[in-house]
Amino acid sequence: MSNIEDELTGLTIDLVRINSVNPPGLTNDIASFIREWLGRRGYQGHVYEYEKGKPNIIAKVGRGSPTLILNGHMDVVPPGESSKWSVLLFLER
Questions:
Q1: Which of 15, 38, 54, 81 is the most exposed place for a label (fewest CB within 10 A)?
Q2: How confident is the prediction along the chain (93 residues), in pLDDT tens digits per residue?
């Protein structure tokens, strides 16, 4: 694998390990992780918490037009019955 593939694989593993199952959909831990991850790469992420326990992160790169917005969510659906999974990752870091 290339360096970018290794980095993306590691990022995915780290994100999956952070419990953000909805309900209740609390995303403080994963938001903190993302903000720190951006910071280590030189980007400043701002956290806005309009609803308790469900922060949003906004990070800007560059200035001017055109503007590209990448939008996603940090909570995930419940994993279902763990006995049916062939691979399990610990949710706790």
A1: 81
A2: 689 998 998 999 899 889 999 999 999 999 999 999 999 999 999 999 999 999 999 998 888 888 888 899 999 999 888 788 877 655 444
What is the biggest distance separating any 2 CA atoms in the chain, rounded to whole angstroms?
A: 51
Q: Which residues contact 5 (CB under 8 A, 6 or more apart)?
A: none
Neighbours of 75 (CB within 10 A): 15
What is the model's pTM?
Answer: 0.81
Residue 64, Ramachandran bin (φ over 0: left; ψ between -120 and 50: alpha; else beta) = left
Kindly provide the b/e burial profile for residues 35-63, where b requires at least 16 CB atoms within 10 angstroms of the residue's own CB: beeeeeeeeebeeeeeeeebbbbeeeeee
